[in-house]
Specification:
The protein is an alpha+beta fold. It is built from two helices and three strands. The radius of gyration is 25 Å and the shape is elongated.
């Protein structure tokens, strides 16, 4: 590596999430602001929003059945 051309890598960079959580990470930046972290992400918190796709599948099947009747 060439000397004096690489940025300083700090292992104690403060990362701040939009939810208010703070923790230390390694980075070349002095401070990092993030939108989502493991404390507020739905996958980790268990508050995952599950979409009901059954209604969509039923509507698709009805349209397919209707188009099959028209072809006959």
């Amino acid at each position: 590596m060439k000397k004096d051309i690489h940025p300083k890598y700090d292992l104690k960079t403060k990362a701040t999430c939009a939810c208010g959580a703070t923790f230390e990470v390694g980075s070349t930046m002095p401070e990092v602001k993030i939108e989502i972290c493991s404390q507020c992400h739905p996958f980790y918190t268990g508050n995952e929003k599950i979409m009901d796709t059954a209604g969509r599948v039923d509507r698709f099947n009805k349209r397919r059945a209707a188009s099959a009747k028209v072809k006959k």
